Amino acid sequence: MTTPPALNVLFICTGNSARSILAEAMLNQLGRGHFRAFSAGSQPRGRVHPLALQTLRHLHFDDTGLSSKSWGVFAEPDAPRMDFVITVCDQAAGEVCPVWPGQPITAHWGVADPAAVEGSDDAKRHAFLDMAVTLKRRTEFLLALPLAKLETLAIQREVRDIGKR
């Protein structure tokens, strides 16, 4: 019996510095070869937020090689073909996205921007942790879907419903 190829997932957020970065790292680790996750932004900040990296390490996720990049990288002809494109912030969900080759399944898993939280360092760390817990739970829901047994439209519905949980 052959193992099916990993499914490619692109997480998009405007700045690609926190939410999409955490989703990428979590799915890559939790997906254990069944998924290959990437992240990008429409207006990337060019750096990963330090609290995003701290949160990943706190939750025992690997933060190696994570970077803030443009979604244009994944619209190039030689880019990996995406099976799923998931927006994780409200701004990116409303933007006109590039045309993704292969008609990937799309969904919106909106999460509040922890980088926008003002106040004490503890309040900021708490906001990042809350966001991470939400994304981890949604990632686990995705991993629990019986993808091999579902039709494409059912997969589309299920993946979109994850963002509403």
How are the SSEs placed, and which strands pair?
Elements: E1 7-12, H1 19-30, E2 35-40, H2 50-58, E3 84-87, H3 90-94, E4 105-108, H4 121-144, H5 152-162
Parallel strand pairs: 1-2, 1-3, 3-4
Helix pairs in contact: 1-4, 2-4
Q: How confident overall, as mean pLDDT?
A: 91
Oligomer: single chain
The number of domains: 1
CATH architectural label: 3-Layer(aba) Sandwich
Structural class: alpha/beta
Query: What is the strand tally?
Result: 4
List keywords for this structure.
37% helix; four-stranded parallel β-sheet; alpha/beta; globular
Question: What does this entry look like structurally?
Answer:
This protein is α/β, with parallel strands linked by helices and 165 residues long. It has a single domain, classed as Response regulator (Rossmann fold). The protein contains 5 helices and 4 strands. The chain has a 4-stranded parallel β-sheet with strand order 2-1-3-4. Strand 3, helix 3 and strand 4 form a beta-alpha-beta unit. Helix 1 packs across helix 4 and helix 2 crosses helix 4. It is globular, with a radius of gyration of 15 Å. The model has no long low-confidence stretch (mean pLDDT 91).
Can you summarize this structure?
By secondary structure, the chain is α/β, with parallel strands linked by helices. It has five helices and four strands, in the order βαβαβαβαα.
